[in-house]
Amino acid sequence: MRPDQPGLPKRSLIGLNAANFFQAEMVGVILPILSAFLKEANWRYDAIGFATAAAGLGTLLFQAPAGWLTDKLTCRRTLFVLAALLTGACFAVIPFLPRTRVWVDSLLFVSGVSQSFFGPLLGALALALAGHKYLNRVMGTNQSWNHAGNIVAAVIAMGLVSTLGLTSIFYSVGACSLLAGVSVLLIREKDLNERVATGLTNDEEKAPGSSTYLLKDRTVRYLLLSIFLFHLANAPILPAVALYVKKLGGSDNWMTATVLTAQVVMVPVALLSGRFCDSWGRKPVMAIAFWILPLRIASYSLVSTPSALVWLQGLDGIGAGIYGVAVVALSADLTRGKGGFNTLMGLFATALAVGGVIGPLASGLLVQHLGFRIAFYAFATLAAVGAAVFTKFVPETRPVKTEGSEDIPDIAVATPEAV
To answer: Are the C-beta atoms of 16 and 142 separated by less than 8 Å?
Structure first.
């Protein structure tokens, strides 16, 4: 899972890949496990939806500030360590506290706040290390390791749940948070171009004073709308599918396998997405992610066995594998030479977070009062609207190469000593 990036510092690339791996292993299976954990405590479906939404609310309120801070501050490795440790602590203490809404919802809210920093920080570190020329390939590799972390988390979860019970997963989250923090420290400061990390290139004499131009950009506005609809439909589906598996008589291992199936597909898809974003363009690659979502959600309403639900999760691997890579490519294109890369990443993540709050709330109410099938129909419709908005209104953003031009890297190629 190594991209074509000759000359980039190997140790720092390993550290970045490892940080992605353990960050994903930290939170990869926690939502479906948490849903089952709360259901065992006799929580209602709508209360579980509110709990899931609490984490999304924390992310929603702090995602834009997290992106802005990532643009303004250069201590990005330290910020990542703090965010990882706080996230791990929030989940690790849940089994020791009363299973009341006040305790659980509060901890999930704080975990959402800390997780809001992961996307902008990892994206900034990738851009600072690779520059615009190698960004898509490096992000493809990073996302592959991220999804590999989810696979390992799912496999470990299946073993832990079957032997030690659901509470064991919360302890593993705490352990992985420590490993994620250690991994990011392998990235050496001297290998990072802090100017390029904000979306600038080495051509500008000074950085722009404000990133307010972003919200005036028509493409950015339509992307925000389509991403919001995408995640409004997508955010509640994994927990809902996990609960549906249990309702159909599936075991805890079947429930955990809903995560594993998707992640196995995501690893090669993320690698290919980085390459195809360069060769095909950003829009056609991202369009695949948008249109496969309504197909997947609608398909859940047509099956009635746990095994079929698990296999359908493979489609989630295609959409999520593409999105994690393509959204970074779009952000880098739209801010190249102007700055505000991490701020834009924060805005896109905020659109995701709004969906992450409203989606679980709606899902809990729909499932509780109308059943799983109606919920799937409703979210499939929302996903189709988001895909239509993206297809109609978002243009290709890949820079046009003139004849005889070259894509010059934004950072100096590392010296042998840096490798």
So the answer is: yes
Reading the block at residue 287, the tokens are 């369009």
Tens digits of residue pLDDT in 32-61? 778 778 877 778 877 887 887 788 788 778
Report whether 245 contacts 255 (CB < 8 A): yes
pTM of the model: 0.75
Is 409 among the domain residues?
no
Cα–Cα distance measured from residue 339 to residue 204, given in angstroms and rounded to the nearest whole number:
10
> With contact defined as beta carbons under 8 Å apart, do 60 and 268 qualify?
no
Residue 412 lies in a domain: no
What's 414's DSSP letter? P
- Host domain of residue 47: 10-197+212-393
Distance CA 78, CA 121 (A): 10
Q: What is the residue whose two structure tokens read 């690893």? A: 267
pLDDT tens, position by position, 287-311: 999 999 999 999 888 887 877 877 8
Report the distance separating Cα 106 and Cα 173, nearest Å: 17
203 domain-assigned: no
* Number of other CB atoms surrounding residue 102 within 10 Å: 9
Distance CA 270, CA 138 (A): 10
pLDDT for the residue numbered 110? 92
Q: Give the domain CATH number at 243.
A: 1.20.1250.20
CA torsion sign for 198, 200, 201, 205 is: negative
What are 41-48's contacts with CB under 8 Å, separation 24+?
41/99, 43/99, 44/368, 45/243, 45/364, 45/367, 45/368, 46/364, 46/365, 46/367, 46/368, 47/101, 47/364, 48/239, 48/243, 48/364
Q: How many structural domains compose the chain?
A: 1
Q: Locate 142 and state its tokens.
A: 């990073």
pLDDT at 368 over 60: yes
**Confidence check: pLDDT of 170 > 80:** yes
Task: Tell me, yes or no, whether 405 lies in a domain.
Answer: no
In the block, residue with structure tokens 């975990």: 111
